Amino acid sequence: MIEKLSIKQSQQMEAIKHLADWCKWLVTLETAAIGGVFAAVKFLTPLTDCLKTLTVILLLLSAISFAVSIFWAAYLLFGIPELIEQLPETKTSSINEMKSKYLSFGLITSQKWIYYSFCASVLFVIAAILSLIASYK
């Protein structure tokens, strides 16, 4: 028998759906970004000077950071079905407080890792662009 969700639980269900959508879009975007990074690295080789070498290193660091973010997004997506199953019985005020027996880390920890990894990736890309610009002067 399907239980009817309260208004609060319906809001939590919507929050979980939005979180899942955010993770899926982020994985798609970051996978494309990794492809772009490797295309740029291929374009920049052979390495002719120190600044181009630094650019390639920064781009590879950004690819690693994107991959870490993808890992955490996939990790979070893995636990979402269980959280949805818990909704009828949960008494928590936020989805971030919900616990999963399959996830070692909570939702908020996963969300922070996704965010920090993504920000690090963007900063590495910006630093690589600045390094590349400096190498042409």
Layout of helices and strands:
Elements lengths: L6 H38 L5 H37 L20 H29 L2
Helix pairs in contact: 1-2, 2-3
Architecture overview:
- The chain has helices at residues 7-44, 50-86, 107-135.
- It has 137 residues and is an all-alpha fold.
- α1 runs antiparallel to α2 (50-86) and α2 (50-86) runs antiparallel to α3 (107-135).
- The radius of gyration is 20 Å and the shape is rod-shaped.
- The model has no long low-confidence stretch (mean pLDDT 91).
Number of helices: 3
Low-confidence stretches: none
The outline comes out as rod-shaped
Report how far the terminal alpha carbons are from each other.
70 Å
> Strand fraction band?
under 5%
Quick tags:
0% strand, 76% helix, 3 helices, 137 residues, rod-shaped, mainly alpha
Give the structure's gist in a few sentences.
Helices cover 76% and strands 0% of the residues.
